[in-house]
Structures are given as C-alpha cells and as structure tokens.
Amino acid sequence: MQTLRGRRMSMIMQDPKYSLNPVVRVGRQIAEAYLAHNDVPRAEARERALAMLAAVRIRDPQRVFDLYPHEVSGGMGQRIMIAMMLITEPEVLIADEPTSALDVSVRLQVLDVLDELVRERGLGLIFISHDLNLVRRFCDRVLVMYAGRVVESIAASDLDHAGHPYTRGLLGALPSLEQRRARLPVLQRDPAWLG
Fold first, then answer.
1. pLDDT (tens digit, 9 = 90+) per residue, 37-50?
2. What are the start and end residues of each CATH 3.40.50.300 domain in the chain?
3. Using an 8 Å Cβ cutoff, are 37 and 88 in contact?
4. What does the longest C-alpha to C-alpha distance in the chain come to?
C-alpha cells in the first residue's frame, strides 16, 4: 500500500484540523510526506516543502513552515493539506469535501489553487461532494452514487438533464433564489433505484 499511497494517489480530507497532527509543525509534516517516498536529505525535503507552500499560494512559506496547525486559518490549513498531498507528485488526487469546512470566499480561493495545480501537473482528480452547484462548476463528469453504488454517470454541464430519480430528487431539493417555495421537497427513496 505504501507504493500506492502518496506516490500514485493522495487524498485531501474534509477538515485540516482533524487531518494535521496538532503537535508537529506543518512544514515538518509536509517534509515527512516527501521523505516517506524519497531517499533524500532532510534539507532537500525542507526545500521541497517550502516550494510546495509557495505553490499553494501561501505568502510567507518560511514563517508558515514553522507554525503549528492551530496557528493557521481553515483556508491556510486546507492549502497546507493540498501541499502535503501533492509533494509526492501523485497521478490521482482524491478530494473528499475539501471545502466544506471553509467559508464561501476562502472556498473559492482553495478551489482555484486546486484547479490550477491539477491542470499544471496533469493530475486526475476525484472530487467527492454533496454540493451539486459546486460539482457543476468545478467538475467535468459526475458519478451519482446511491446506497454505495453508481446510479448515474453524466457530464457536469448536463446535470440539469439527469434522468435517474435520485439525481432528480437531489436537484429538486436545491434551494433557489429565483423560485420561491413554501417548503423544499423531501426525497422519497425507492429500493428500485438500485435496479
């Protein structure tokens, strides 16, 4: 698994405050990820970590390198996690609700950083989210899962034309500023959806 994890694929979790070790400085954690897959001196791992902090748009990488996780904001913590997951140069990046713990303005900044790095490095990205509007804006293709199974595969640009009842129900439950409703509909699940 060590040859697969980190080197071939990495995963960004939902909330950096639960993913980063609270008693280890963030720069050291990034460098350790690099050292786990590369037999290099610690000084080289430090330089790589500093370069990754700069790549995820952290203004003062030298200062941030020596901070503990509780000393950084949520958005900076998520960018630190992105740096840690990308320092090993994986082929595929899995992002599990990477912005759910962030406020809207910081969310867009983190997504811009992630989008830029994925494009520059030619990475495959699996983006896991319940936010269909975010998925529509950020993804190319959508796989909708119900009860642990893929029930629909559709281009993100065609999401409004989804055919599966579960996908239609999810879309119907989205609040809208243009269409006022007394209540949002409740999704009535059907065992036949697994068909």
1. 999 999 999 999 99
2. 1-128
3. yes
4. 63
